[in-house]
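Researcher: Here's my situation. A collaborator sent me these components and asked whether they could plausibly form a single complex. I don't have experimental data yet, so a predicted model of the whole assembly would be a useful starting point for our discussion.
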Amino acid sequence: MASDPRALFLRDKRVAREISEDIRRLARELGEEVKIMTFCGTHEHTVTYYGIRSLLPENVRIVAGPGCPVCVTPARDVDVAIELALSGIRVFTYGDMYRVPGSRKSLAEARAEGADVRVVYGIADAIRIAREDGKESAFFSIGFETTAPIPASYLRRGLVPSNLKILSSHRLTVPILRYILESPDIPLRGVIAPGHVSTIVGASAWRFVAEEFGIPVVVAGFEPIDVLLAIDLVLRQLVRGEARLVNEYKRAVKWEGNPLARELMYSVFEAVDGLWRGIGVVPESALELRDSYSDLDARAQYGIEIRDSIDVRPGCRCSDVILGKAAPTECPMFMRACTPSNPKGPCMVSSEGTCSIWAKYGGYPIFRRPPS
Amino acid sequence: MDELDDGATIPIVEELSGKHLVVTSDSYTVYPIFFPGGDIGKLAACGTMNDLAVMGATPIAVLDAIVVEEGFPFEDLERVLESFKRVLEEENVALIGGDFKVMPSGKLDGMVISTTGIGIAESVITDRDLRVGDKLVINGTVGDHGAAIMALQAGLDVESTGLASDVHPLTRAMEEALEIGGVHAAKDLTRGGLASALNDFASKNNVALYVHEDAIPIREEVLAYSEMLGVDPLALACEGRALLAVEAGVAEEIVEAWRRMGYGDAAVIGEVVEGRPGYVLMETSAGGIRVVTRPSGEIVPRIC
């Protein structure tokens, strides 16, 4: 494999050590505690999988952000999907979403009760199956800006059959980061912006973090060196008293992103106020189908209303974990009542959920490496 | 049975005085039944040999019980039995008994093989005699079996990916190590892979283990596949790999001997250290340290 990251410098121990030594030096210079948020679940995976926290000094803390689409999908939408499935409409869902508890149960549990639920890799599979048997179906469409252009593309090209409705629960990353930065109880000194999302929204989408909030922001890739470098780039700015937007992930992310994909996405969907699980309503942060697609909109066609949904079960601290306010180990249920094989909260279900990542790849306790 | 080890041991007096009779029982179910590198017959035979071998025993006899679903193709059954018997012949092990039953269609998925294996050990190797300072050695790449089976189940073109199961008997690899001596503990890597075996070692012996990610042999295909599907290669099943804790002085010698036998990827992957008991720590390829946790949930599919 020519693109094997091991063949590049991206997982090189010596490079990692050099950068972490520089990070230590900068952290000493700064003195105070510095909290940096990695937006993306995949960044949290890199941080935990490669033991990045063990390479950092104690006053540099990396906290995971809301970048797990499965985790932030409101229980209400899961409940709608379950209602549809129990009413005889087949529901297509992603594997992660399948196991996420709604207010009372998950789609997996609904299936055990006889509901028609099928796990698929994406909308293409759902379209193929729906065309084959003509059965009334709905696709539970979730994901950030990276995912939304895919269903948009099928919808705009008229490739979605009339027996397949779309239950859109897409969420947008830029508004939620703004929401977090406006919250006074989440004191961040730096942001590592999502890499994959930025291929669509463009690095420039994060300029407001530096310009409006005075916080250094770095768009980063997903190899361990990418993340270490991003931390280093944040600290350098803090030492100099600067706040800029830096694109570390130039090999994938362009300044302007992918305007074509964005145009496609907004021609099918429109941004509306959206509920985030455990967080609340965030202005213009959800994607709903435009009126011209209402004949394929599951909400418009089936009109299922859920009155009271329960996003967070008593004891579960997923909403604090998602906002970087608490580490998974600060949740009383973590690895006790809530485990990967018996998850109670969404963060323990998704492979991008912080609790699931810590449980699978040993994010705790942190064994710090002594400086060499 | 109280020990819950790879096999039960029964001391024998009289002419076999001082030796142990080692008995193991297991059942095998795998989907699909035929896979690159083997089939359920080979898997059952090797699995039985391996449970005995890592206890320090030489396998001498096997009993089997096979249940098939009504309508199971006769040619497939013959093929499976043929590869089951071939392993026993090559290992010079007698098939001393067995049973065969058919269940109604739909009551069973294809076939299940249960085995009982009997071996004799000069001295028994358990998985609970690790000592601080011991080195951890492994006889080859990890995750090959698990990756091949999961890729097949995911409907991938496995032949073209180059993935293949590592299923084969560990008897000779164990003989070689025992001949050199200094073996304190052994375990064959099956369900839950290396991560599970390391955690067993650490928790049963109340010691800490320190392993080096860069030293753990993993085939490039397995690594690529694991990254693609987001599974941890350390949690993928193996069917022809043994993890040993050995005296530091003999670790390189055992690895060299294994390499001469054809286990080109054999390696020293870590050591037993003082530290927080029960923890498996790994120095990652990026130089960080993380805990290797015991695999649970859906990363432990029933594939062996």
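Model: Some features of this prediction you could bring to your collaborator: DSSP finds 16 helices and eleven strands in chain A. The two ends of chain A are 33 Å apart (CA to CA).
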